[in-house]
Amino acid sequence: MTANPSQNLPRILVVDDTVRNIQDLETDRFHINIAMNGLQALELAGKVEPDLILLDDVLPGFELGAVDYVTKPFNPTELMRRVDSHLELKFARERMAPLAGQLSRYLSPYVYRSSKERRKQRSPHAGST
Predict the structure, then answer these.
(1) Radius of gyration for the chain, computed over Cα atoms and rounded to the nearest angstrom
(2) Are residues 87 and 10 in contact, defined by beta-carbon separation less than 8 angstroms?
């Protein structure tokens, strides 16, 4: 039994009503879901939980969490490089989160003791009764 190769591919949600723009993005490196409007995009985003959303719309994107934009007409090579960069950043953050949690749990007792000792040393009444 062969696994579905698209299961391990990054999921990209493309929201664009221009078919030509969507065709430029077709690649075997990503699992691409397409929405032609905002309502479809909201429905799909809840179902497929995309790793990246490419949105063709005039919205206050940076106020809503966007971190980059590309103007049209876009250069397909530039767009793919940006897509790769943002996916790499997302996956790196996901890999780092559990490690940061483990490190925090490991260091917490030491940091607590160390800060408590520093406070005692600075206190003029430290050690006096």
Answers:
(1) 23
(2) yes
pLDDT higher than threshold 80 for residue 35: yes
pTM here is 0.70
Each residue's pLDDT tens digit, 80-109: 899 999 999 999 999 999 998 888 877 777
Query: Is the CA virtual torsion 76, 81, 82, 83 positive or negative?
Result: positive
What domains lie within the chain, and their CATH numbers? Answer: 5-122 (3.40.50.2300)
Query: What kind and span of H or E run contains 89?
Result: helix 76-122
**Residues composing the chain:** 129
- How would you label 95-113 residue by residue, b for 16+ Cβ within 10 Å and e otherwise? eeeeeeeeeeeeeeeeeee
Over residues 103-125, the pLDDT tens digits come to: 887 777 766 566 667 777 776 66
Q: What's the token pair of residue 43?
A: 């429905």
